[in-house]
Fold:
Amino acid sequence: NDSILLDIAKKNKILGFAGSTSNVLKRYYDCAKKFDADPIIRITGDCPLIDPKLISKILKFFQENNFDYVTNGFPPTFPDGLDVEIFSFKSLEKAQKNAELKSEKEHVTPFFKKHPELFKISNFKNNKNLSSLRWTVDEKNDLKFVRRLYRQFKPKKIFSMNEILKILKENPQLIAINNSIPRNQGYLNSIKND
Structure:
C-alpha cells in the first residue's frame, strides 16, 4: 500500500521507508536504525497544518535540556493537529524492546508516557490553552475544514499557527465545521482493544 508514496519520494529524491503496518513502534525503530536517526521527530500524516516554527522551538527545547522524550500533547495545549513528539534513538530502542500492549505498539509513544520512571520527559506548553481547536484530518469534516483553510491562504502553502488563528478570528464559522469530533479517538479505540 505504501509503494505509491515510496515512488513519489524516490522521484523527488526523498528517503522513504515502509515497515510493519500493525507494529508502528517497530516500524519507527527499524526506520531510525536504517537511517541512523537521532533524535527522531514524530509528526503524523494527519497533521497537514503543522507549524515548522513550532517544531524548531520544541527541538531546541529538547536539545537544550537533554530530554529523552518531549511532546506538546501531554497534556495538550496546542490545537489538535499541531502535535509534535521528539525522542532519542536510545529511548525509542528501550520502548521497542519493552512495549507489550497492542496500543503501545500501534501508537509509538504511549510507552514513554506510561513509564516516566524510565525516561526524562517533558511537555512543551503553549502560553494559551488552544487544545479545543481541531486542525487534524481523521474525518470528512476535518478534510473540509483544512481545504477551506488552505483556500484562505492560497497560493501560500506553509503558514504558522498564529497565521491560522488570525484567519479563524476573521472567519469563526470555519471552526464549527469539525469541532464536535473528539480528540485522539483512534488511540482511545486502541486502548479498548488491549
